[in-house]
């Protein structure tokens, strides 16, 4: 029997959490030509200039990697960049409804795949832990549906600072955290609802079991190589010291072809492209795992389906920031190329999307959820926040069309059958995948 989401959602939550009105990262495009307010030479810039002087110009990918995740000085490693006092804001920080609907998505997929006795929820780049926190609240509220299911949380995070904030958001303070900087699992804790949480630096270190994977605004911070088509063929964009101004960095084109050219697709028609080999490696790992043990991956980010060219940009203090100025003080990002992610899945699993955020959230029942929260609240400021958050997430001119959802699922999920159906049983027809289709409950 299918129960429409409307009636299933009604008895749920009536709590609202505060939101912060700030800027989101998908808004502008830039490639190093926007006047920067802050042009002091940072320790990161000194480090990069030393590197360039000793071994020559560096690729944009190496620049991004150093600036964002260098263990000593990286932007992500020691910053809390999210929220009002940070550099940008993300959907889970804007509205609790976002994470709640994603929680519903995982439960809906868990049901559709046959209600396994256990699953891991793995989040890549969990920021402040807000998204997982909202998902865990849904899991608690739907405890009767998930009862007897053994759930564990696995967070993949490179940032020391953010992992501490995630622990504060998610764990029960009375149970001390276990820390071991040398171990692949560098921290362990227990959620407020008693679910074990483990922290890793790499996806490869997360145990291979039946898992649901989540990556929100994670793929856009992975390093990209940039290429320009020239009469001599593809030439990679490098970063060098400006010979005219000794403490300034500038873009240059490589004089000959470079190894990363191997990542350019044969049928490429654009004349400027960004390729992200790290994204390919992660998608291959996710695809292998899902093909082997089942589960699903949900990836949400701003991006395109293989059409855009120059999207590398920086954000600092909710403003666009010159990517080559004061490195280490600003976020660097590039749009996700979903067509590349689809190719990297290599048909080991089925891929769905990208679909625009406004479509995905509508299909997931955002209007019903908003109404429930509005009906429950008498406080005009809370009601206004809820409406503003909805507008930010859904408005085509804001995040509604720039952000996309993309999923990887086992082939059998889309073609009927699941892991728990034996050969003699008739295969049930596959239920639609929520978000990519309207949400229904079996
Ligand atoms: N998903 C969160 C945060 C997005 S910001 C949200 O939507 O609010 C990007 C996140 O990815 C941060 O938590 C950052 O520390 C983490 N991150 C960046 N590069 C990473 C890498 N190479 N491996 C693991 N985490 C990374």
Can you give me a brief rundown of this structure?
The protein is 33% helix and 22% strand.
Brief descriptors of the model:
single chain, 442 residues, alpha+beta, ten-stranded mixed beta sheet, five-stranded antiparallel beta sheet, 20 strands, globular, binds S-adenosyl-L-homocysteine
Low-pLDDT residue spans: 1-13, 18-22, 24-38, 418-426
Q: Please give the alpha-carbon distance between the first and last residues.
A: 5 Å
- Are any ligands bound, and if so which? S-adenosyl-L-homocysteine
DSSP E strands, number: 20
Which shape, going by the Cα principal axes? globular
Strand content: 15-25%
Computed CA radius of gyration, to the nearest angstrom: 22 Å
* Total helical segments: 16
What structural class is derived from the secondary structure elements?
Answer: alpha+beta
Overall average residue pLDDT: 88
Main sheet? 10 strands, mixed
Helical percentage? 25-40%
Written overview of the protein:
With 442 residues, the chain is of the alpha+beta class. The longest helix is centred in the first third of the chain and has 17 residues, at 96-112. α6 packs across α7 (130-141), α10 (277-293) packs across α11 and α13 (366-376) runs antiparallel to α14. The protein has 16 helices and 20 strands. β6 and β7 form a beta hairpin. Helices cover 33% and strands 22% of the residues. The termini are close together. The strands form four sheets. Strands 3, 4, 5, 6, 7, 8, 13, 17, 18 and 19 form a ten-stranded mixed β-sheet that branches. Strands 2, 9, 10, 11 and 12 form a five-stranded antiparallel β-sheet that branches. The model is unreliable at 1-13, 18-22, 24-38 and 418-426 (pLDDT under 50). The structure holds S-adenosyl-L-homocysteine. S-adenosyl-L-homocysteine binds next to α3 and α5.
């Amino acid at each position: 029997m299918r129960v429409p989401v409307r009636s299933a959602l009604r008895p749920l939550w009536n709590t609202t959490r505060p939101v912060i009105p700030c800027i989101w990262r998908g808004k502008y495009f830039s490639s190093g030509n926007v006047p920067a307010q802050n042009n002091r030479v940072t320790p990161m810039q000194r480090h990069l200039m030393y590197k360039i002087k000793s071994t020559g110009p560096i690729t944009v990918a190496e620049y991004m990697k150093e600036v964002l995740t260098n263990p000593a000085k990286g932007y992500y490693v020691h910053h809390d960049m999210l929220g009002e006092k940070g550099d940008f804001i993300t959907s889970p920080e804007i509205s609790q409804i976002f994470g709640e609907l994603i929680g519903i998505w995982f439960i809906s997929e868990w049901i559709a795949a046959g209600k396994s006795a256990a699953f891991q929820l793995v989040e890549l780049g969990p920021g402040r832990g807000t998204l997982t926190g909202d998902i865990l609240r849904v899991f608690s509220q739907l405890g009767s549906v998930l009862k007897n299911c053994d759930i564990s949380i696995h967070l993949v995070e490179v940032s020391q600072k953010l992992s501490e904030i995630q622990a504060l958001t998610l764990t029960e303070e009375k149970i001390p955290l276990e820390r071991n900087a040398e171990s692949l699992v560098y921290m362990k804790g227990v959620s407020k609802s008693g679910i074990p949480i483990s922290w890793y630096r790499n996806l490869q270190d997360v145990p291979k079991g039946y898992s649901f994977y989540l990556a929100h605004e994670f793929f856009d911070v992975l390093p990209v190589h940039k290429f320009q088509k020239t009469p001599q063929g593809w030439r990679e964009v490098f970063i060098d010291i400006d010979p005219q101004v000794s403490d300034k960095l500038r873009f240059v084109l490589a004089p000959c072809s470079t190894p990363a050219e191997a990542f350019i697709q044969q049928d490429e028609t654009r004349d400027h492209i960004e390729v992200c080999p790290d994204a390919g490696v992660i998608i291959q790992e996710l695809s292998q795992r899902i093909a082997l043990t089942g589960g699903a991956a949900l990836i949400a980010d701003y991006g395109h389906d293989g059409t855009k060219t120059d999207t590398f940009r920086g954000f600092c203090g909710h403003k666009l920031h010159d990517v080559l100025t004061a490195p280490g003080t600003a976020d660097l990002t590039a749009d996700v190329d979903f067509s590349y992610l689809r190719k990297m899945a290599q048909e080991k699993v089925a891929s769905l999307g990208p679909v625009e955020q406004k479509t995905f959230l509508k299909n997931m029942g955002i209007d019903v959820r908003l109404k429930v929260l509005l009906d429950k609240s008498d406080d005009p400021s809370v009601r206004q926040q809820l409406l503003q958050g909805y507008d930010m997430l859904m408005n085509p001119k804001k995040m509604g069309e720039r952000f996309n959802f993309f999923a990887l699922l086992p082939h059998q999920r889309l073609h009927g059958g699941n892991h728990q159906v034996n050969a003699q049983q008739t295969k049930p027809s596959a239920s639609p995948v929520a978000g990519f289709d309207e949400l229904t409950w079996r």
